[in-house]
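Q: What structure does this chain adopt?
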Amino acid sequence: MLDQDGVVALVRALGAGEQEADERAEGGAEAFPLVINAPDHALFVVEDDGLVVGLVSVGSVLSFALGATYAEVELLLLQPAYRRQGLGGRLIETAVAWARDRGCKELRVEPSGPQALIYYQRMGCRELAKRLVVWDL
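A:
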């Protein structure tokens, strides 16, 4: 069973700014039961002595334009002390396996910056688009 408090604490700790961290943590607490019970979404964690130190949140999307389903990494977080140990790569590999098992044609992720893009490219991805436009609803 996933540790909801541990997952929400990790999201809060690694939020970009204080307000964003609070909003993400609140969303995480509300979304947690929805995510872990949704057939088109998954949450995988890395723990160390019972402490959640990393996670990847991935979901699938049916695309009319693609003519298939693709998966998207919504969130990839890893505590700084646990980086450069291959754990992020293992989380991505887990997301890739999850997507393949569901017949997804692609796994997409929006890099947070140039270093993240290089990181993902080292794991074999290609750049699809440079920007994302969003409408708040």
